[in-house]
Structure formats: structure tokens, C-alpha cells
Design goal:
Oligomer: single chain
Strand order of the largest sheet: 2-8-7-6-5-3-4
Number of domains: 2
Number of helices: 13
Order of helices and strands: HHEHHEHEHEHEHEEEHHHEEHEEEH
Largest sheet: 7 strands, mixed
CATH superfamily of the largest domain: Type I PLP-dependent aspartate aminotransferase-like (Major domain)
CATH architecture of the largest domain: 3-Layer(aba) Sandwich
Strand content: 5-15%
Amino acid sequence: MSVIPGAWRRTAAGAGLLAPDGTVAPTIFAEMSAAAARTGAINLGQGFPDEDGPAEVLEAARSAIAHGVNQYPPGRGIPDLLAAISEHQQRFYGLEVDPGSEIVVTAGATEALTATLLALIDGPDDEVVVFEPYYDSYAAAVALAGARLRTVPLRAPDFQPDLDALADAVTDRTRIILVNDPHNPTGTVFDRSVLEEVVRLAERHDAIIVTDEVYEHLSFHAPHTPIVTLPGAASRTLTISSAGKTFSTTGWKIGWVHGPAELITAVLTVKQYLTYVNGSPFQPAVAVGLRLGDDYFAGASAALAHKHEILGDGLRAAGFSVFAPQGGYFTVADATALGGTDAADFCRALPERAGVVAIPLTAFVSTGNRAEYAGLVRFAACKRVEVLEEAAARLAAGF
């Protein structure tokens, strides 16, 4: 007999969290990582770096542990990190954010997103609009919050949404418009016209804008533009980011959300019953990171753009069609010409065939919308240069 209550079983099943037999459904990420371990393939599936972040940030964490910063921090986050986040938003975007009432530190961006949805969804008639493909936790969090997911497709080659389709998706039932920019998994950076349309529609339908901006410092061709900086956005926008991608510390799980004080209070109310608090010694270290010089942030973006070039050249040499990313960790390629008309099957065979692991883009798409993404594959570029060069050589040899 199942120990999962019926309501939660139905919710989890709807979110894709349970297999048809009621057991926990393994993700494609777990499956592909296991394949990498079994075959010795290079894992370009999951988006985590294989080298450490800046030395001064790591040393700050060691120092914090050595000096006793090992117990519960304040619920909103340690004051110095709250101040550093506020300073960061002013420094890069000209935003005035009150560190005492408009920021909450979270266990990564994923908790920030989940706490936000749980806090702000009112009931089963609420809808959350997302761009598809989407980061896989979005659908699960929306389902757990009891809302409905509505999707707006991003299509190759530029992965920009059709504005008419966006306008059709946003209605008076829309509670939240969720914007991930720069975008995972496609690597696109949304045109300003897209951001302006999101704000216009949110105002028209009295919706809240929630942004996932974890790749904000990894935009390759132009500085990142937070949607909250657009006219009319600030009063209805919650901005989410984290330290993991910017400082190559994905395992620390230090994120944050900022926005209007009343909305942040609602998020904090939920967060305190999720992780309560998190990451005491890592919080002062992230404060150090956010205060690094401009050369660090520019260098991180340039270094990742170079890695994408290495990966993209290797994929093209192997016969893939490549969609060069504008930002973020990932490159999307079309495997159709290589027989990859079913990207999931293609990725399952790839470790044995070429000694490389990747993820099918259909892992980020609703079940009914997978056909047009069937040949597309996502590769992670956030690895050491020599690893990417070896992956490129293996791919060329495998095809």
C-alpha cells in the first residue's frame, strides 16, 4: 500500500514526479549521469562546473567556518549578504533595494522560485505562464502550488517567443508570468520587445512577474537587462538570482529573491517552513563575491563564451547544426542529420557511441509539445577547456 496521500499522489503524478506505477520517477539527468559513470563518458549533461570559483570567495567560506559561523543565520539572511545584494543591484542595474525588507536569501534559486509560487498562488484557477522549453523544476513547482501551467513556445533558430502567442497565453487567470533570462536550456537572451510585452501584459491582467536570472553575469553580447528595470515593472516583479552560476559554487545553494516588501514577506513566510534558513558560512563568502571587481564578472562571461566556441566548433565538425547561445551554460544542437530524430534515444546511445553525455531538449518540454523539439540536444559548456576539447574530439570520431 502506498504511503503517499491521494491528493499528493495526484499532484506529484501531474508534475511528472511519479512513474506510472506510483514510484518516484528517475529524471533523465540522473539516467544520463549514471550512464557517464558506467561508460566513462564525458558528462556534458548536467550544468555544473568542474573547476572551483574565485579563491577569495572560497577562502571567505573557510574563514567563516573557522570563526564559528556555523549556526542558524537570521531568517532573511545575514545582514552583510543582504547589504551586498542591495549594493550589487545598485552597482550593475541602478536599482534601489532595501536590504532590510525587500530581500530574502534562499537555498538556491530553486527554493526561491518554489517558495514564491507557494506563497503567491491562490488556488487551482490560477495560471502560471512560462516560456517552453523550461527549466524542469518549473512544472513541478507550479503543480505543487496547485496552479495550472501555460506555455509559450520558443522555436529555433533564435528561440524568441511570438508576441501574439504570448498575449494569447496571458489572461485574467494569469497569476504569475515566469521569465528565465538568459534562458535555460536554449541559451537565448530575450529581446527588449519581449520584456516590454511581458510588463504590458502583467499590467493589463494584474499579474505578478517572477524572473529567474541566475545567468545574469553570463550574457555574452550585451549587459543583462533585468525586467524589473523597465517602466511599470518594479511594483509587480520578484527578481530571483543566485551565486552558483556566477561563482562556480553550485553546491553551496545560496540564492535570493528581491521585490516589493509585501511580496517578499509572503515568500519569507513560506521559506521558513521549507529550509528555515541555509548556508551560514557560505553567505559571507557570497557577499565577498558580489563585491568583486568588474574584471571578474567580465572575465567569467568571456571565458564561458570561449568555451561555447570550442564546444560549438566540435559539434559542427561532428555534423550537428548548432544554435550559438547568447548566454548561460548550454549550447543546443540539432542531431537530426546524424540520425537523431528522437533526441532521447540519441542521447541514450551517445555515451557508447561517442563517449559523451548530453540531454534531449524534450526533457524541458511538456508531453504534448515534444514533436518540434524531437531532434534537439543540450550540451553543457561549463567545463574545463581541455575537457571540452576532448569531448569535441570524441564527437568527431564518433560520427
